[in-house]
Amino acid sequence: MATIKDIKQAIIDAIKQSKMTQTELARAINVSASTISKYVHGKSMPTLHNFFKLCKVLDLFSLPILNEPIQKNSKTKNKQK
Description:
- Helices cover 59% and strands 5% of the residues.
- It is mainly alpha-helical.
- The longest helix is centred in the first third of the chain and has 14 residues, at 4-17.
């Protein structure tokens, strides 16, 4: 089962492995280069809308991790009970 941490790492890895500069990627998804830098350094996560755009630009839809159910952390599970 994929965790948020796994997905976050997949995004970071895809950005680093892409042949695009952070500025080019930022332009492609209409955010600032500093926003991309925050994603790369794990300081923030993209919004769902920007996540979708990243997936499209970086071809992340083919990653197996995105086809797995997301595992909620134990704190979230306990709150729902």
